[in-house]
Amino acid sequence: MKVILQKDVLNLGDAGDLKEVADGYARNFLIPRRLAVRANDGNTKVALHQKRLADLKREKRTKVMKDLSASIEGKTYEVKVKVGENDKLFGSVTANDIVLAIKKTGVEIDKRKLDLGEPLKALGEFKIKVRLAEGVAPQILVKVVGEA
After folding, report:
1. Choosing a second label site near 21 at 20 to 30 A (CA), which of 34, 52, 65, 68?
2. Would you say domain 2-64 falls under CATH 3.60.10.10?
């Protein structure tokens, strides 16, 4: 059965794609969950139009993210944290702390875009990847500095 995907489906395709799938998969999974519709002439034209709009939107977003990437790429951001004896941190530096340091320079970034892996629990410099969009992932340098 030919279907037009309404949403991105893992291991099948992106929204707007025309796919040939098993009848049972389409009837029992894709169509009831509104992930796809049965392909016919009218639906195909609408799907192609939606795909073009989605591509334009994605290109525009990527362009904006590349501009944002150029403004933060390679810069150093300083995060001050309280430390105790032997420069041991009280707590850790989280994505939210880093976003606040970036915000002081006038750039807004969502904390979910930062790829920390795990919170920073030591003083020093750390390279952090910022996943802005597909193919746009600048690296920033975060300097964790202690204050007594």
Report:
1. 52
2. no
